Structure formats: structure tokens, C-alpha cells
Amino acid sequence: MDAQRWILVAVVVIVVAVIVFLRFQRAQERTAQERRISVQANEQAQLPGDRVTQREDRRLAGMTAEDKAWEQASLQRNRESEARMHPAEPREGRP
């Protein structure tokens, strides 16, 4: 009976070791894949405009709905102020 217990304990230890190893391996693969994706994204963002777009996307993602509403209202006030300061000039050929 004592030998059976040792065999059972050994089997359980081996199974646990295999499970831990597989989880660790998956985590490493996931990390490596995330790094590859990050490198690819940085390589694709070669143009300054692309970098600005990515930075703007991150900025907007961190904003609350209230922040976004405030920003839109501020931009609208700025457009209205600009329109008052520089009224549109009549185009030639139009009455």
C-alpha cells in the first residue's frame, strides 16, 4: 500500500509540473507575439502623420465622454470665433 501512495504522489507531481510548464510556455508565446505585433505596428507607422494619428487615437481612448464633449464644444467655439474674425470673402462669379 505504501508503494502505491508514492506512485500516486509521483504521478500527481509530474502532472502538475507538465501543466505549469505548458502555461509558462503559452505565456512566453503570447508575449513574443505581442512584441512582434508591436514591432510591426511601429514599422508601419513610418510616416509622421501615422505616428500623429496613433498618438491621437491613444489620447482619445484615454478621454472620458465628458472630456470629449468639452473638447468638441471648445473646438466649435474656436471655429465660431475664427469665422467672426475672418468672415468669408465673396467668391468671384457669384452674386
Descriptive key words:
95 residues; mainly alpha; 82% helix
Question: What is this structure's SSE topology?
Answer:
Layout: H1 2-44, H2 48-61, H3 65-85
Distance between the termini: 107 Å
Radius of gyration: 30 Å
Average pLDDT, to the nearest integer?
A: 84
Structure summary, number of beta strands: 0
Poorly predicted runs are none
Q: Which descriptor suits the 3D outline?
A: elongated
What proportion of the residues is helical, as a percent range?
over 70%
Total helical elements: 3
Reading the helices and strands in chain order gives HHH
Structural class: mainly alpha
Largest sheet: none
Could you explain the architecture of this structure?
This protein is mainly α and 95 residues long. It has a domain at 1-32. Helix content is 82%, strand content 0%. It has helices at 2-44, 48-61, 65-85. The longest helix is centred in the N-terminal third of the chain and has 43 residues, at 2-44. It is elongated and about 100 Å long. The model has no long low-confidence stretch (mean pLDDT 84).
Q: Care to give the gist of this entry?
A:
The chain is mainly α.
